[in-house]
Amino acid sequence: MSKRSWRARRLAFVLLLSVAAASDAAPAQELTPDHRRWLEEEVTYLITERETDVFLTLGTVDERDRFIEAFWRKRDPVPGTPQNEFREEHYRRFEYANRELRGEAFAPGWKTDRGRMHIILGPPRSVETFDNYNNLYTSQLWFYQGDQTRNMPSFFYLLFFKRLDATQYRLFIPGADVPGDLIRGSTRSFPERNIEQLLRISPELARAALAVDASEPVDIMGGTVSLGSQAAMARIEASPRYAVRTDYLDAWERYGSRVSSEYSFNFVPSEGAFAVLAGPDRTAYLHFSIELDLENLPMDTSGDASRSFTTLDASLEVRDPKGRLVLTDEKEAFVQLKTPQLGAIRGSTFAYQDGVPLAPGDYEVMLILRNRVSRQYTVAEHSVRVSDFSSGQPALSDLLVGFRTEVMPEDGPDAFKTFQVGSARVHPAVGGVFAGSENLNAVFQLLSADTSHGLHFALLRGGEVVAERTRDVAGTEPGFIEERFSLEGAVADRYELRLQLQDAQGSVLAEKTAPFSISPRAAIPRPGLFARRSFDTSNGALLAVVLGDQYWAMEKFAEAERLFEHAVAEGDPEVPEAQWKLAASYLRSGKAESALRLLLPLQYEHADRYEVVVGLGLGFYLKGNLAAAVSHLGKAVSLRPPQPGILNALGDAYLRLGDQARAREAFERSVAIDPEQPDIRKSLAELGSGVSH
Questions:
Q1: What CA–CA distance (Å, rounded) separates 668 from 397?
Q2: Are 459 and 437 in contact (CB under 8 A)?
Q3: According to the model, what pLDDT value does residue 23 have?
Q4: DSSP 94-110
Q5: Is 70 exposed, middle or buried (0-12, 13-18, 19+ CB in 10 A)?
Q6: CA distance 679 to 667
Q7: pLDDT of res. 171
């Protein structure tokens, strides 16, 4: 291969290629005996169809074990305690059924009708057995007070009988069965005679033969069976699955691959709020708050029980419309509070808040918050549009609906923290929910407006304006602008707040909207515990690097290089990455000399930093210093899994130095990673590697 052909492609070596290796998912393993027993015996009356489907698709024993842990955790009535009262009670019922309610031929009790209902409902309030009646099959009547939160009747009967003198009790279901089925030698032709016989034995027995629901009116004398009994029985049998939230399975399908296996089934719900605000120098910042109930934030307790604590890991991802990863941000937050504080914040929520700078554009944002103590996680997602606040055009920031604003005088007029501009801090109403007794604080920023402009506010319900007001721009101060609305007396419903910036003629120059709702509840849980982070807006070098990375990811290389140059000019020794990022930009545009000037001073202090080593290797390669190139590129592929472009540059350098064996080795490694490289395969063929074209 000629030197010219490799020179013509030299810029390709600078673009670091990534290859996504595709592999078929491993087939699910057969259920172990323990897992099959758990699914088909122990929880067969509890587990939902959705949970069963997911459990059977899991590929490993470890995944199934974690699923089982999550299954019980989702049913724990008091999740903040070490005990799981629901699981303990279930296994007490299960063991009792197997011990006391066994069926024919020693059939396990959980399979019998009485065993099934005992497992589902627990022990009845009362039991009455009817035996030794010549005209009545042995029967047993259970009476229950139903749990209406689980869709059961308030009071109901369960009637069991030994049909045709069988040895095992069977559940009597009015409608499917008739009163005559309880009586020896009876026929279905005379229901009133059958009910008369039952009445002589027990009025309760007669009534239970006609209806499950004890409160349902029945024709006791006519012996007419209730038409609703089969539906009532179906509700009773389905009660363990009623209102069971399976959103943790939806989260597993969507996010399970994004978190480590110990978190995968431990999703907890949350609400998120996102807003784009203008920071210093009109840079746009995305502010976000994710809130969850305190019961979904388990913590460890210190040895002396004086404090509770946990560590949270927050992972932020921002992608552009092409799916390119524009920004990643990984942070941890240590959360602790003293034990006496627990009582003061009971019933409130926890809020994690942070903010990051974002380049103008449209994005999809995902925040994953993980709790190291409980191995639980939650996710907030949002679509955001970031405007170019530096354009000089009249503009509005995003519109925040908050339940409170407060003054933070210690931060000063130039402060810019999460949900705070100057000394004004906003507490966003995450989810946009308010109680009717609250005020709605509409908070926003006004940019590049003049004194002739005005602000128009409108509250809309179902698209109709229910309240509106105007405000002059003249006299507004820099920073947040706040407009307060009393919700007293407003109808509980969904609303929208609309804000318009208008010129002197009433034309709309900019518009922002924010949905909110008024709840019939007397109070809405608000945060009582915070983990609040903020981007350091005073660090100009770091800000330029973060924004430069975003432009680079979106392939806006000129803007990225300008920002990296600004970062280097800041001369901040705490941001050395500015130099190797600018060097990478120079290498991309073929300015090897400029790149080497930046990297050479870093080669000792950052001797094992991949970006420095690979940058030096590519710089020397482009300059034709092949010996130095192979030295640095060889080290680079040992520091990080190699990429085809780097291996190709290394192989070409060896080839031009006359070391064909090492050139062949580098090219073969490159083709193993990315087989779709016809030029490299051709070079290997010329080197006699035997690799086919």
A1: 54
A2: no
A3: 32
A4: HHHHHHHS--GGG--GG
A5: buried
A6: 10
A7: 97
Residue in 114, 121, 117, 118 with CA at minimum distance from that of residue 145: 121
Query: Residue holding tokens 């009586």?
Result: 183
302 in helix, strand or coil?
coil
Q: Phi then psi for 434, rounded to 5 degrees?
A: -130, 150
Neighbours of 372 (CB within 10 A): 15
Alpha-carbon distances of 667 from 79, 305, 646, rounded to whole Å: 56, 61, 10
Query: How far apart, in whole angstroms, are the C-alpha atoms of residue 177 and residue 168?
Result: 17
Beta carbons within 10 angstroms of residue 510's beta carbon: 19
**Could you tell me which of 230, 197, 201, 199 has the C-alpha nearest to residue 213?**
230
Helix (H, G, I), strand (E, B) or coil at 206: helix
**pLDDT value of position 226:** 85
Distance from chain centroid for Cα 495: 26
b/e map 375-396, b = 16+ CB within 10 Å: bbbbbbeeebebbebeeeebbb
**For residue range 431-469, what is the model confidence (pLDDT) as tens digits?**
999 999 999 999 999 998 888 999 999 999 999 999 999
Q: Tens of pLDDT along 16-26?
A: 322 222 233 33
DSSP codes joined into one string, 207-234: HHTT-SBTTS--BTTTTBPPTTHHHHHH
Q: Give yes or no for a contact between 381 and 247, defined as CB atoms under 8 angstroms apart.
A: no
Identify how many contiguous H helices and E strands the chain contains and give both numbers. Answer: 21, 25
Full-model pTM: 0.83
The span from the CA of 674 to the CA of 12, in Å, is 14
Residue-wise DSSP of 491-551: PSSEEEEEEEEE-TT--EEEEEEEEEEEESSS----EEEEEE----TT-HHHHHHHHHHHH
Q: Show the low-confidence residues of the chain (pLDDT under 50).
A: 1-28, 690-693
For position 167, what pLDDT does the model report? 85
452: DSSP letter: T
Query: What is residue 189's predicted lDDT score, i.e. its pLDDT?
Result: 66
